[in-house]
Design goal:
Helix 4 crosses helix 5 and helix 4 packs across helix 6. By secondary structure, the protein is of the alpha+beta class. 39% of the residues are buried. The longest helix is centred in the first third of the chain and has 31 residues. Strand 11 and strand 12 form a beta hairpin.
C-alpha cells in the first residue's frame, strides 16, 4: 500500500523501496554565531577642509578657487560616483560586486559557525552528525535526495526468497526543507516526486509464482460447475485433472470473472491456455504514473542533549496529495490515499570517532482510502461492470465486492533503523571531511482490508546499507554543503512481492537567517 518512496512520514525518507526520514542528520544543540561588525560606510564624503582666502598680492587665485566644486570630494575605490558621471560607472559596478561577495562570505561563515557550535568542538564532530541532532535556531537546510530502486525478487509468507516473474525500476526524488525555529525545535516539510516507474513481467517466471497459482485456481473454480453440468467430469478433482491434461470445449464459452466482466474461452482452445491468457492480461503493466507523492510535515523537539547522549521526539502528518483513487492498477499510483499522523523517536550515543544512532517511527491512518476497482480484462482501465450481479446462464460469477473500494489499514505502520557512523578523519587529516556509515533498517506494514475483504497481507521488509559522506564543514575554508551516497540491499522479509535494492544520492545545503 505504501508508495515506494516510503519517504519518511513523521519527519523523514527512506526505506527500501521502502522508502524512507525526518530530522535525518540534523545538527545538535548550539549557540548563535557572534554578530559580524558592520563594514564602515563610505557613502558620505569627509568634511572638506576650509579654503583659505587668497592674499591681496595674488589677485589671480580667485578664479582657481571658483573652479573647485563644493559638493564633491576626490573619487576613490570606496566612494560612489554620481550616476551622471560616465567615468564613475566601472568603479560602481566593481564596488557593488565586491560588497555582494563580502556579504555572501559573511553569511557563509555565520552559517558554518552556527553548525559547528551545534555539532561539537572537535574536527570529528564536524563530519559525523547524529540522527537525533536538530538544526540551530534560524538555520535553514534544503536536502535533495534522488533514489534509483530496482527489484526482481521478493519474499513469501514464510520469509523465503523467490522470483516474482517481474522486474521493477523506479527513480524518485525528495525535496526536504527544514528550519530551526529555536535551538531545540525544528520544522520540516518533505515533498516526494516520482519521475520514472517501470514494471516488466516475465510470463514464464510469473507462471511459476504463488500469485499466478491463486488466480488460476479462481478461474478453474469458476468453470468447474459448468463442466460438471455438461457431464465432462463428475467432481471438482476430476475436472481439475481434465483441465491440466488440456480439456477444451467444442464451442466458444463465456466465463464471468470475479470483476463481473465476461471473458470468452474460444472453441477448441484448452481451458488452461485461456485461463493463462486472462491472468497474464490482468497483470500486464504499463509505464507507472509520475508526479508528486504524499507531502509530509514534521515537528521535532530535542528533549535532551549532552556531549554523549542526544534524544529527540517528534510529530508528523502525511497528506494524501499523491494520485491514488482513480489510478488503474497497471499504472501504480504514486500516492497512498491515507491521511496519517505519526510519532518519531531518535537517540544518539556519541563515542567519538563513532556515533551509534537509533530511529523509530510509528504511523497511524486517520481515514479509509478510497479507490476505484481496475478491470481484470484490461488493467489500464477501471472496471465498468458490476461484480455484484451474477448471471446464472454464464459460468463463473462476480465476487460481490463493489467497484468502489474503501481500504482500511488494520494496525500501525512501523519503520526504523540502527546506524553506526565513523569519522575517517581519526585516521588521517587528509580524510577529515569524510565519514563511513552502516545501516540496518526495517519496515512492518500491517494488513489492509477492503470492506471486510482482504486487500493485502501484512508485509515486512529488512535491509542493510553502507554509505559514505563528504562534509564541507570539515574543509578549509568551511562550506555549509555536504554530499552522501548510500547503497541499500534487501536481506529479508515476508509477503514482499518485490524487495528492491536502492542507490541514494543526497545533497544538503545550509543557510542561516
Amino acid at each position: 500500500m505504501r508508495s515506494y518512496q516510503g519517504i519518511f512520514l513523521c519527519l523523514g525518507l527512506i526505506g527500501s523501496l521502502t522508502g524512507t526520514a525526518l530530522f535525518g542528520q540534523d545538527e545538535d544543540q548550539a549557540q548563535s554565531s557572534p554578530e559580524v561588525p558592520a563594514t564602515p560606510s563610505h557613502s558620505s564624503p569627509p568634511d572638506a577642509p576650509p579654503v583659505p582666502s587668497a592674499p591681496k598680492t595674488q589677485p589671480k587665485a580667485a578664479p582657481k578657487k571658483a573652479a573647485v566644486p563644493n559638493s564633491t570630494s576626490p573619487l576613490n575605490p570606496s566612494t560612489l560616483a554620481p550616476t551622471s558621471q560616465t567615468p564613475g560607472a566601472a568603479p560602481l559596478d566593481k564596488t557593488k560586486a565586491g560588497k555582494l561577495k563580502q556579504i555572501r562570505k559573511v553569511k557563509r561563515k555565520e552559517t558554518a559557525d552556527a553548525l559547528i557550535k551545534r555539532r561539537g568542538s572537535t574536527s570529528i564532530d564536524n563530519v559525523i552528525v547524529g540522527e537525533a541532532q536538530v538544526l540551530p535556531k534560524n538555520v535553514f537546510r534544503l536536502r535533495y535526495i534522488m533514489r534509483n530502486a530496482s527489484a526482481d525478487k521478493g519474499y513469501d509468507s514464510a520469509g523465503k526468497e523467490f522470483s516474482a516473474g517481474a522486474s521493477l525500476n523506479i527513480t524518485g526524488h525528495a525535496f526536504v526543507a527544514e528550519y530551526g525555529i529555536t535551538d531545540r525545535l525544528v520544522l520540516q516539510m518533505i515533498t516526494p516526486y516520482t519521475s520514472s516507474n517501470e514494471l516488466a513481467i516475465n510470463a514464464n517466471e510469473f507462471k511459476r509464482s504463488a500469485e499466478y497459482g491463486r488466480q488460476f485456481d479462481k478461474l478453474v473454480d469458476a468453470v468447474t460447475p459448468s463442466l460438471i453440468a455438461r457431464g465432462l467430469c463428475s467432481d471438482a478433482a476430476q475436472c481439475r485433472t481434465a483441465i491440466d491434461n488440456g480439456l477444451a470445449l467444442g464451442i466458444a464459452t463465456p466465463i464471468e470473472l470475479p470483476s463481473g466482466e465476461t471473458a470468452t474461452v474460444g472453441a477448441n482452445v484448452p481451458i488452461r491456455e485461456a485461463a493463462n491468457s486472462i491472468i497474464l492480461k490482468a497483470v500486464e503493466p504499463a509505464a507507472g504514473k509520475s508526479g508528486v507523492g504524499d507531502i509530509q510535515f514534521g515537528l521535532g523537539y530535542n528533549f535532551y542533549s549532552s556531549p554523549r547522549n542526544v534524544i529527540t521526539a517528534g510529530l508528523g502528518l502525511r497528506i494524501p496529495s499523491g494520485l491514488f483513487s482513480d489510478v488503474a492498477s497497471a499504472y501504480r499510483a504514486p500516492g497512498s490515499g491515507f491521511l496519517a499522523t505519526g510519532l518519531l523517536f531518535r537517540y544518539d550515543l556519541r563515542l567519538n570517532p563513532v556515533i551509534f544512532s537509533f530511529s523509530h517511527q510509528a504511523e497511524l491512518s486517520m481515514n479509509k482510502a478510497k479507490r476505484s476497482r481496475s478491470s481484470m480484462i484490461n488493467p489500464r482501465y477501471l472496471n465498468a461492470e458490476d461484480p455484484t450481479n451474477d448471471d446464472p446462464s454464464i459460468p463463473g460469477g462476480g465476487d460481490g465486492v463493489s467497484n468502489d473500494y474503501v481500504i482500511e489499514r488494520k494496525g500501525v505502520y512501523h519503520e526504523g533503523f540502527g546506524r553506526v557512523a565513523y569519522a575517517l578523519g581519526s585516521l588521517t587529516r587528509w580524510l577529515k571531511p569524510a565519514a563511513l556509515y552502516g545501516f540496518y533498517s526495517y519496515i512492518v506494514d500491517p494488513e489492509y482490508q477492503n470492506q471486510g475483504h482482504l486487500y493485502s497481507k501484512k508485509r515486512e521488509l529488512y535491509t542493510a546499507s553502507y554509505a559514505f559522506s563528504i562534509d564541507g564543514l570539515a574543509m578549509e575554508p568551511m562550506i555549509p554543503v555536504s554530499f552522501t551516497y548510500r547503497r541499500e540491499i534487501a536481506i529479508g522479509g515476508r509477503n514482499a512481492t518485490l524487495a528492491p535494492d536502492s542507490d541514494y544520492f543526497q545533497f544538503n545545503f545550509y543557510y542561516k537567517f
